[in-house]
Amino acid sequence: MPRQVFHDKSLTVFMAAFEPFGGRSCNTSADLLQALISSKMPPGIRLAESAILPVDFATAWQILQPQVLKTKPDLVLLMGEKQGGSLTIESHARNLRRHGSATRKIAADKARFYTSKIVSEQLLAELPLATRQLFMLSENAGDYLCNFVYFMMLSVEPAINALFLHVPARSPQQFRKGAADDVKAVCDLIFSVKRILSGAGNNSDTKAIDGSGTNGMPRENQRRLLMADKHLVACEQEHEMITVLKHFKKGSSKENVDKMQNACRSWKKDSGAKYKPKNRDNFYKYLQEKGVLGKLS
């Protein structure tokens, strides 16, 4: 990705969310947008403009596109609701939309899907560990209006950096309870985008998952561990720590696979009270103690 220069040292962001629909009085994506507007953006981040979009295929994109083109932001952050789960970063928009009980292409002359050029393992790696745990990555933004607007943004305006964030639907009372954490998480996410776009990201020395140095671990092995981390965030199941091995095996040397496999087996059997609870963070600490993170070659 070409490096961008921010002349005023600020990343300008256009944020959009959706209005309530289905007879509800609130939409959590709009609640989060309002909370972000009311909060103080971190240094280096400037909110250029925002919009609350109608839940309507005929008008949502027609409203969004001219506002984005007028503002010319460095980043367009789109937000919409989903049922349950975590804050979800969508990497793809599919050429597919719901039409009654069936689905059809959004545009016959477009590709099957478009990928955001700023969603990657590095984006997660740039986040503080505590924030990273609040997010999951997804490759399926659905087949409704969220996916539609994201698809139009990525396919029609490819020169503009765009990111879609699905927000778990909550009541106003539930949202207010966790609003501060959500606002901080989104601000951290935007700041990570800024680091990547400006070339200040940790490209030459990617850190291990728990924040420690990787002691010269080859870039490809770092990438595979981050891919594994992406899966672990998505599944959110303690007993699926062994999934790390499945991702790591692809293309790795037999020696490295054996190291990882032995570590996974011993973790499942006898990692001991020192690593309770058996969660993701303790798993990576265990891998480091076993030398898997620091000694892979």
UniProtKB/TrEMBL annotation:
InterPro entries: Peptidase_C15 (IPR000816), Peptidase_C15-like (IPR016125), Peptidase_C15-like_sf (IPR036440). SUPFAM superfamilies: Pyrrolidone carboxyl peptidase (pyroglutamate aminopeptidase) (SSF53182). Keywords: Cytoplasm, Hydrolase, Plasmid, Protease, Thiol protease. GO terms for biological process: proteolysis. One of its GO terms (cellular component) is cytosol. One of its GO terms (molecular function) is pyroglutamyl-peptidase activity. It comes from the Bacteria. It holds the Pfam family Peptidase_C15. Belongs to the peptidase C15 family. PANTHER family: PROTEASE FAMILY C15 PYROGLUTAMYL-PEPTIDASE I-RELATED, PYROGLUTAMYL-PEPTIDASE I. This is Pyrrolidone-carboxylate peptidase. It comes from Turneriella parva (strain ATCC BAA-1111 / DSM 21527 / NCTC 11395 / H) (Leptospira parva).
